[in-house]
Each structure stands twice: as C-alpha cells, then as structure tokens.
Amino acid sequence: MRKSLSFLFVFLVLLLLLSGIAAAGFWQDVTGDIVRSFKTSSYANDLTLASSTRIIQNAEYFLNNYPSLANVKTKITSMGGLAALEEVFASYNPYESISTKERKFNEIFRRYPLINEEDRIYIVHLAHALWIEKNNVVPWSLRDYNADKITALLERGWAIEELANRRFEDTVIQRASSAWEYGNISKDWYKLYPLTMNIINGSGNQLTAASLIIEWAEKNFFDAYGDYGWGRYMEDTGDKEPTGSSGQTCTSCDVKNQIGLEDAFRERIIADQLGAELVAAFLRSVNIPAYEVHTRGAEGSFEYGIAYAPSLELFVHGNLIASFADVPASSLLMSYPRIREQISVSPDFSSYKSHIWDTYPYYSVSLEREGDYLYISHMDSLYRYPDQVDRIKAQLWEYNISLYSSARVKIKTLRELTNPPLEIARGIPTIREKIPIITRLSRMFGR
C-alpha cells in the first residue's frame, strides 16, 4: 500500500514538473525533435508543410511551393504587391467583424498607394484563400487546382469573362459583359466565410458543401414580386423602375452594379443573375472555384444567370433558387449536357420550373416577405401529400410549418450573421494556437 502511494506521489510530482516545463516552452524543443525524427522516415517526402521545424508559412511560401499558383506569383510580382500581400496575410482573421476587416485593409493599402483598387481586391482574395489553405479548414486544397480553376477562384471582371468565353465558346452558355462581375458582390465574397462555414458544417467534399449552400439560399432568398421588387435596390425608384418582376433592363443592370452583399442580405430579393452571383460568392468563400455565366437568349443575346463550379463541372440556375424553398440541391445542380438541354427548351428555365410543379407539386412551397420577416407561402398542395409533410417540416424547421401556416422568421443582416463572438474578433488564440505541439503535429500529419 505504501509503495503504491509512493509511486502515485512520484508520478504527480513528475506530472507537475512536466507541466511547468511545458509552460516555459520546453515542448517547442521536444516538438522540434519529433519533427526531425519524422523527417528521416519514409513518409517525409509526402509532407510539404512540415519540411522544416521552423517553417514560416507566409504568402511567399505558398507562391513558391504550389505549382498551381505559378500564374498568381507572376501577377503579384508584376503589380509589386508581394509586400502588401504579406501584410494582409499576416494580419488576416476572417472571423473579425466586417468593419474591422475593412478598416485594417484600408490602413495597410494606404502604405501602398501605387497598387490600384482592382489589384487590392485581388490581394485580399488571395490572402483569404491562403489563410484557408494554411489553416486546413476544408479538406480540399489549392494545390489540386489547375490555372483556370485558380482564376475562377480569385479573379473577377474581364479575367472571368475571358475564361468563361474560352470555356463555353459557341455554346448556349457564354459569358457576356456583366455588371455583377464588376460589382460589389464579386469583390466582397470573403465576408461570407463565417456564415458559409456554419452552413457547410464540416462537409467532407465540395459537392456536399455546394448542396448545403444552395439549399440554405433557397430558404433565405426569394424572387422579386409586388411590394418586394427590384425597386428596393434602387436609390431613386422614379423612372428607373425596371419592367417586369425580373428587372431585365439596362437601367436595372446599372443599378445592380451598386448592390452589395449587405444589400442582398437586408432585402433577400434575388432572381437569376443575383442568385447565381450569390451562390458563386458562397462557394468562393470556402475555396471552391465558381463564377456566373449566362444562357443564350433570343437572337443570340445573353440574359439569364447561372452559377458554374468548374471543379464540380456542375451548374445551378439562379431562377430556380429564387423560385423554390424546398427543392433538393440534387434536382437543381445540373451537368453540362443536362443544362444545355434545358436551356434549349427555355433559357429562363420556366419549362423546368413547370416540370417541378407538375411532377413534384409538394415542392411548390416558396418564400415571401412580410415586413422584416420571411415566411413560407403556397402551401396549399403540401397537405395533399402527407408522406412529404414530415420531410418538408424538417427541411424548413425554422419556419415551424403547421396546417396552412408558417412562422415568421426575422431577417438578419449580413453583419448579424457573420460578426463573431468577441474573443474571436479580438484575435484571442484558440487552444490549437496556445499549445504549440498541437499546431506542429497537425501540420506534420496534414496535407
């Protein structure tokens, strides 16, 4: 009995001693020994991120070691933007509040007056993508993309138009000049990251993540109608009010260019192009390449917006997201042959919407707005299909659907949905950052 107590006493003393040594930083040296030993093993050649015990994963490290970023390195060098990129990347925290991030970027770029606005946007996009890569927050990697997919992830404006026109030349899908691609949403998608991570909820692959994003968008955005038309996005609704609920006029296009993420989340009104641009923004925010393309309309014009994810080779029409609240993403995501077929029937996808209503009438539930609240409407056919009621209630649980009625869900702004808990916003280290050995080992056994 005494021997047992003695052994326990010695064990506790040793444990306390080791804890004190760890607090003094000893574990960092131990970790270094672990890494050095590991580097002599047969697995060392498979580890890029653990090539050095004191490796500094700055932006230049990724530009130098990822072949997929060769064109990015050339562009950053040509604009003289490496120093600015390093500053943005070193201080980047996607969980900071939107206002904090914007203020920080403005302070950094004030020191680099020769870098123009478009290049500043590109640098922020790149810093965000590299932060995700460095911290291994998603199971897919930048190293797995080719140059075109990196372009689809980081670029906007003419670069996306050139990419899409090359990819879809002489087809029913093609990139036309789009105000969206030069507008506020295409430059601010990194702001969606905290919300997107909450939506995809640890998805193991890009298809699952894209499906969850689409289904979330269905439940939170609606098609323009009546009192909630495109006029709500306009400063002066007078003579500028576009014709039709979809708002497909040149005047509307000029106004759409002013719409940002915060406008879209405040109003929740979308249609084809805005719906497609939002889905692309969500995907990009978690390093999934995506951009908006258009369907070819009458007489060769380009009219309707579709989100395209090149790493999945899948498309989703913005009008479908706007029109439904409960259609599974598997019925909205389409391959290239399938979407070509649907476009040839009706570029606005009205035919496909009619197909869903006729074939699956219980999917006809949709979203509307009342004051500052959203609710589910058009539920008349729902209770004719009792086998679907439980599934739909589970899918739309926040609307608390009961017999022919829906709860009203308060609309939250983008800042309300993305501003983080105070400790994250202040940059207080996570437990992973507080204990160096956890960080180092996670890098060793990561990608």
Account of the protein in words:
The protein has 447 residues and is of the alpha+beta class. The chain has a domain at 2-55. It is 50% helix and 8% strand. It contains 24 helices and nine strands. A four-stranded antiparallel β-sheet has the order 1-4-5-6, sandwiched between helices. A three-stranded antiparallel β-sheet has the order 7-8-9, with no helix packed on it. Strands 2-3 form a two-stranded parallel ribbon. Strand 4 (291-296) and strand 5 form a beta hairpin. Helix 12 (206-218) crosses helix 15. The chain is globular, with a radius of gyration of 25 Å. The model is unreliable at 21-54, 236-256 and 422-447 (pLDDT under 50).
Secondary-structure blueprint:
Blueprint: H1 2-23, H2 26-39, H3 59-65, H4 70-78, H5 82-91, H6 98-109, H7 117-135, H8 147-154, H9 158-167, E1 173-174, H10 185-188, H11 193-200, H12 206-218, E2 222-223, H13 250-256, H14 261-267, E3 269-270, H15 272-284, E4 291-296, E5 302-309, E6 314-317, H16 318-323, H17 329-332, H18 336-345, H19 350-359, E7 366-370, E8 373-377, H20 386-395, E9 409-410, H21 414-418, H22 422-425, H23 431-434, H24 436-444
Radius of gyration from CA coordinates: 25 Å
Q: Briefly note the structural class of the backbone.
A: alpha+beta
Low-confidence stretches: 21-54, 236-256, 422-447
Question: Which sheet architecture does the biggest sheet show?
Answer: 4 strands, antiparallel
- In total, the number of strands is 9
Spatial separation of the terminal alpha carbons: 50 Å
Classify the helix fraction into a percent range. 40-55%
- Work out the strand percent: 5-15%
